[in-house]
Amino acid sequence: MVIDTTSPFDVTALDRWLGANLSGYAGPLSITPIFGGQSNPTDVLRTPGAAYVPRKKPPGVLLPSAHAIDREYRVMSALAGSGVPMPRQLLYCRDQNIIGTEFIIMEYVAGRVFRDPQLAGSQPHERQAIYGSLNETLALLHRIYIAAVGLSDFGKPQDYCVRQTARWTKQYRASETHRINAMEALIDWLPRHVPAEESVALVHGDFRLENVIIDALQPKVVAVVDWELSTLGNPFADLAHCCMLYHLPPDAFGGFLGADLAKLGIPDETAFLAAYCAHRGIERVSDWRFYMTFALFRLAAIMQGVYARARQGNAASPDALERGAKAALCAESGWAIARS
């Protein structure tokens, strides 16, 4: 028996498949979409005795190499027991006939997901602790010994920023709807300013507050989610992605520009970088201007893709059109840093 009748895919087929493949599964089931992410649709699947999270590719025509749900499953499975808090992976289904695209099933992790980076309603000491845990978790990920978790072939460790700049330029061109002058400037500037030396780590690719689950009672990260962009790469690029809010206004993803961070209890950029270096056991982050410029360029390319999918009607979030339209603002912020 299936009690959900509003899902965009065949819930009956999913119920039947889970009954045959997931140990301990017993319906009836209901499905509730999780909104907030802009890429792979994610839901909460509930039965009388358990809860699970299915995550699938979006429908429609997709950009090459995008929405790699199989890579998400692999990296999250590999990190089980590593110390990086992770939802347990249960199943991966390659058969697109079940719910229309390939998908994964993972355990449901109870907790809080904050969409507002300024954590409205929280106390200053709670904000400080949450951002401290976020920082420590990212540093822990970057300390993972790649070979020990079986991910030595998870990406090309050399020339990460060169390849990523080329990749996101290509993705941007594939979803381009109008000319953004700042993006044209960044596409020219970035390849000429890549740091001579790059360290290599396992990187999340979209590490930020919205992509972690905070314990229901304690200000602590209990799960890192949304691993679609993970690969082997430069950890400072991952760190810069997490720090972009310091360079964006409040009306762009809840940016920190103009906010009284000391009053809020949120560490400023200098303090956040210092804490990360302490957790990593390194002295400093070199070439920070490049990495922050690159992060904002990459976000602009991602938002352009979100905008294009929203116009086609196959975006994962109902506010995709509004968020995607901020691609130009991201590019302009990146270009301002490049020129500073």
Question: If you had to describe this structure to a student in words, what would you say it looks like?
Answer:
It is a single chain. By secondary structure, the protein is of the alpha+beta class. The protein has 2 domains: 11-107, 2-Layer Sandwich (Phosphorylase Kinase, domain 1), CATH 3.30.200.20; 124-339, Alpha-Beta Complex (Aminoglycoside 3'-phosphotransferase, Chain: A, domain 2), CATH 3.90.1200. It has 11 helices and 9 strands. The protein has a 5-stranded antiparallel sheet, covered by helices on one side. Strands 6-9 form a two-stranded antiparallel sheet. A two-stranded antiparallel ribbon has the order 7-8. Helix 3 (124-142) packs across helix 8, helix 4 (160-175) packs parallel to helix 9 and helix 5 crosses helix 11 (327-339). The chain is globular, with a radius of gyration of 20 Å. The model is unreliable at 1-6 (pLDDT under 50).
